[in-house]
Structure formats: C-alpha cells, structure tokens
Design a protein that fits this description.
Length: 562
RNA sequence: UGAGGCGUAGCCAAGUGGUAAGGCAUCGGUCUUUGGAUCCGACAUUCCCUGGUUCGAAUCCAGGCGCCUCAGCCA
C-alpha cells in the first residue's frame, strides 16, 4: 500500500534535475544546489517568467538548496525601479521566497570593473576605438571570418590607461569599447572579440551617475553567478550559443566558483504575445490600461483577472521542461485555472442581460428566504440565504419564445426550475411596440419549494435568477483573448492582430445581494456563466466584475452542430 | 551556405536496446438542483525520412530532410 503512495508522490523528473542528480553523485558542487532568477527590470513579469521562477525556486526547494533573486540591471537606459518593485511583488504573489538573498548586478559594478582590469592585465582584453558600424564590418558574417581590429595589439599599459579614462568619463558614448581578445575567425559569432564594457553617460536607477561605463550581459552574468556561488545557471535556449563565452570568462579569470549554464525552451502560448517589447508597446500606446490590464499575459494582469497563483504553479508543473521549441495550447492554462477555481470558488447567481420575470400566482408583497448551496464541490462551504419574491430577473438568453430543438431552458408552456427555489412554467410574454420582450410571466408550483417535486416530476432546465427588489447592480467586463493569431510572435505588425472585441463591457447586470461589498480579488462562479473576479476599480456604489473565464458552454456546441 | 541546438498524437511530454506513460484538446456515454463539475470509455501497429546493426530499434550506426538560435556598444 505504501508502495503505491510512494509512486504517486514521485516528482516528475526532467533533464535539468537529471544533471543535478548526476552532479550530486559525483560531488561536483559538494552536493550544494544554488539557483537564481535573474530578470532585467525593464518590464513586468509575464507567464513565461513564471515558468522560469517555478523551475528555479522549485529546484532549490526540492534539493534543499537556495534560489536568489537577482536584478540583471546592466543597461541603465531601459531599467526602472517601478519594474523592480513589480517583479518583487509578483514573485511573492506566485508563492516564492528569496529570503535575504536579493541582489543586483549593479551591486557588483566595482568587482566587475576589477575583473575587467584583470582581463586586460592577462592580455585578454583591449580598448577598441572602432565605432559600432566598423565593428560590425570587422566582425565578418556567418560564413566568412572577421578580421582583427587595428587596436587589438595595444599594450597592456595603454589599455589600462584608456580603460581608466573611459571610467573617468573622458570619452563620449560610442567612441570606445573594451573588448575581449578571443578569436575573430571563430565559427561562433559571440567569440569574435565581444564587447565587455561600453560607454553610456546615462543615469542608472540605483547607482545614479556614479558610472558612465557599463558591463555587457555576457561578462556581467557569468561573473555575477560566480560571485553568488550559483551552481546551476538555468536560462533559455537562445543563450545556448553564449555558453562558450560564459565559460571563457570564468576560465580565463580563474574564478573559484564556476557555475554550469543549462538551457531550456522558453514558454510560448497560443494566442498570447510574450515579447516584452510588444507588451511595452501595448502599454505605452495605450492599447491596454496598463501592465496589469486583465487582458495582458502578465502575472499582475492574470492576478487582476482572477487567476490564482496555485493554478499558475500547477500549469508550470504540467507543461514540463525540455529543449524542444514548443507552443503550449492556452487551453491547458485555462484548464488549470478552471480546475482550481471550480474547487474553491463561491457560487453566486448573476444575471448579465436582465429581463423581468413575474410570477403571477405568487402573492404580492410576500418574500421568502431560501437556502442556496455555496459550493457543491466543497461540503464545508455551507449555505447562504437568497430572497425570493413575485418579481425576479432572469437572463434574457435563458428564454426563447420559439426554442430550437435541444434548448431546455425557459420557453412558453415548458416547466423549468429556478435554482434553489421553485418549478415555474412560462405562461405569457409582454412586448413593447418593437416586438421586444419586456416581461415574462409565469406561474409557480408551491409544492416544489427548494427545487424538488414530491411527485417525482423531473425538469430538464435549471435557471439562475436574482430577486428584483434587493439585487446588486454591477458592471461586468468580459475579456476575450487579446490576440487572434495562433502565433502572434510570428506576425510582423502584431497590432493589426489585436482583437477589438476582446473587451466587452456589460452595464446594468444584476447580482444577488450576497455580492454586496465584495472586495477586490474576490473570485466567484456565477452559476452557468463562468468565473468572475471583483476588480480593483470597484467601489461601494459601483461593483465591477472581470470575467476570469467562461464555463465550458456545451449548449453553444450543441447549437453549432444543429 | 558556417557553428550550435532540436524533431515522439491536434498541443505539451515521458521513454536512454525488450515491444509507445501521463496531461490538455477532441469524441462517445453516465450522473447532476450549473448544458459546469464528476465518473466511465475511445483516441500513435509506431516515434521526421531512408538504409544498416540486432532475436529484438523511438532508443545504436550511416546518409538525408525540416525547424530554431547567433553577424547589438540589448538581455
């Protein structure tokens, strides 16, 4: 018996964990496991980052190791403290804790400078006076080797002097660059004397104007990993070709800790743009209200839309980690959200497109308090009271005067159940001059209180409803996918791909009175309609709900077929 | 056309010489006071292709084909 339990609890392994297991067996890092999540603070975190966060923190937890949060802030032009704040809050919300291990690459600027000086002394770096365009010409192409810079053979002394003067601010941007002296004929373009430091007279979000030279990613990243004694530096596939350079810097500088870079495939999702550049464009050009717009694939957007961190973590676990490029179907994400929300969310009745329902044989002025179950998936969730009276609202989509076959909600002469209340039968409709239905009339069977008949009579449809006199008015925002294309990253002009119908605002929606005072972030399931989350824009006199996800609508499929 | 990676179902993904896990999606059916959820069932004679080795190949070998990444003083 315990055997099956163990099998059930076995963690799914992946190739990264295999590498770590192997390292632990051979004692490569003395059994230590240290990872890091290293975002550049130049935008908000999105669902793609969640995969990396879950991976890095998950591995650290599994092996009893540590995971650092490190801001890779080596390019002052793009970075901002607004982004570091949002990143910290999103990582926490996802449920991960870096404890006291929060670092910045900019913390290491002095050390990195000294490493660069060391490189020069070793004869492995030189100051190059070529401009950007010339460097590109000298670099050669994928099929032709590059040629050496005329400045490649400067003396160590001259290089040291020039590099010091670069730091002192004696040269304008773009006039000189420190380069690693490797091999201009390398088949790997990254090894053709890559830049190590560039001049940028720019204000840095943390170091201010202290520096006017900044290290490049390849130089700063491997050394930051080494300084923090990271054992496994996990990154995405596009850095695979940088690994020889990662190792070159660490080998040449003979550092004590030499982490291993491991690459995995980044997350792509159908119908979802993950490019930070494009997401930034959506924000700055105001196609969305901000980084946390519920249509955005950002962590904060998803949170505002009512996605839970548990569900996002589950998703990251299910998609797996491999080296093959892949595009996960967004239906898997939605499945994870539904599974979680179905288990935990309060059921509430809501009417998006209200139409008056009058029960003619129900006494005027009478009201009843009926018990409605809070969550059939959770036996501890209990019941709540809903008021019932002669005048109610139902959703206009739940009534058809001439129903097609297969429709089993309300239509003239057909008996249906009002959830948790009574069986009712439509007797009449009232119309205005334009043939629009303004009111539906019905009769109820007093013997069916609670929604069951004691003569065993069954009913096919169950409608949700709210009491007309004490329901809550709300604005409901229906969010669809922001993008229509299956793979928007492949679309050159992605803005043409934004779905203009992706946000539909419904005013005058009616919710049952239990929704009064709902706090932002409170997620419920409106019976039959989907999952909804109280938006942060809600106030005491205006309830704003975001639709997290619709329920799977089987009726829609039935009607499509016929 | 250089180098480095990667090809298992509609989408992810296990599998590492012993006869193709699992999840999503889809399609049936059951149940239901949500047309949701639940439950039950179906869904790769074959792993990019072609040869070879072997009693036996998705796994090993050879040769093809396809896709991704790299020519920033971005990360």
């Amino acid at each position: 018996m315990s055997e099956t339990l163990e099998i059930k609890e076995t963690k799914s392994s992946d190739f990264i964990r295999e590498i770590i297991d192997n390292d632990n067996e051979t004692g490569k890092h003395a059994g230590r496991v240290a990872t890091r999540f290293p975002p550049e603070p130049n935008g908000y975190l999105h669902i793609g980052h969640a995969k990396s966060i879950c991976l890095n923190f998950g591995i650290a937890k599994q092996y009893g190791g540590t995971c650092n949060l490190r801001f890779d802030d080596t390019n002052p032009c793009k970075e901002d403290t607004e982004y570091v704040d949002s990143i910290m809050s999103d990582v926490r919300w996802l449920g991960f804790d870096w404890q006291d291990r929060m670092y910045y690459a900019s913390d290491y600027f002095e050390k990195l400078y000294n490493y660069a000086v060391e490189l020069i002394k070793l004869g492995k770096a030189y100051v190059c006076d070529l401009n950007a365009e010339q460097i590109r010409e000298y670099r050669g192409t994928l099929t032709e080797p590059g040629k050496n810079s005329p400045y490649r053979d400067r003396s160590v002394e001259e290089n040291l002097d020039l590099f010091q003067r670069m730091r002192n601010g004696e040269f304008p941007d773009g006039t000189r660059v420190l380069r690693a002296k490797i091999d201009m004929a390398s088949s790997n373009m990254n090894m053709r004397d890559p830049a190590v430091y560039r001049i940028r007279h720019a204000h840095h979000h943390r170091t201010g104007d202290k520096w006017c030279i900044y290290p490049m990613y390849d130089f700063a990243h491997c050394l930051s990993d080494s300084i923090e004694a990271i054992t496994h530096s996990i990154c995405t596939l596009e850095f695979e070709i940088h690994r020889p350079l990662y190792d070159w810097y660490l080998d040449v500088l003979k550092v004590k800790d030499h982490p291993q870079q491991i690459e995995f495939a980044r997350l792509n999702l159908t119908y979802t743009v993950m490019s930070k550049r494009k997401l930034l464009q959506l924000v700055t050009e105001k196609h969305v209200t901000g980084w946390d717009d519920p249509r955005m694939p950002t962590i904060s957007g998803m949170r505002r839309r009512g996605y839970t961190s548990e569900a996002i973590r589950k998703f990251c676990e299910l998609i797996g980690v491999a080296k093959a490029d892949s595009t996960v179907d967004v239906s898997l994400l939605e499945h994870c959200i539904r599974e979680d929300l179905n288990r935990r969310s309060q059921r509430v009745m809501g009417v998006l497109r209200p139409i008056k329902l009058v029960i003619d044989n129900y006494p005027e002025g009478k009201t009843e308090e009926l018990d409605a179950i809070n969550n059939p998936e959770d036996s501890d969730a209990g019941y709540r009271k809903v008021t019932f009276s002669r005048e109610l609202y139902i959703d206009s989509e739940d009534f058809m005067e001439e129903p097609p076959k297969g429709f089993y909600r309300m239509s003239p002469g057909k008996e249906v159940r009002l959830k948790a209340a009574y069986y009712v039968t439509c007797t009449d409709v009232v119309k205005d001059g334009q043939d629009n239905i303004t009111e539906i009339h019905c009769t109820y069977d007093p013997e069916t209180k609670g929604g069951t008949s004691n003569d065993g009579r069954k009913v096919k449809g169950t409608l949700h409803w709210v009491n007309a006199s004490d329901c809550i008015d709300a604005e409901v925002r229906l969010y669809g996918p922001l993008f229509k294309s299956v793979n928007p990253s492949a679309v050159e002009d992605f803005l043409t791909d934004i779905n203009p119908c992706s946000l539909q605002v419904l005013k005058n929606c009616k919710l049952e009175k239990s929704m009064a005072g709902g706090q932002a972030g409170y997620t419920v399931q409106f019976e039959r309609l989907g999952y909804f989350c109280v938006d942060q824009d809600s106030s005491d006199d205006k309830l704003v709900m975001n639709r997290t996800l619709p329920l799977k609508d089987t009726w829609a499929k039935v009607s499509q077929k016929s």
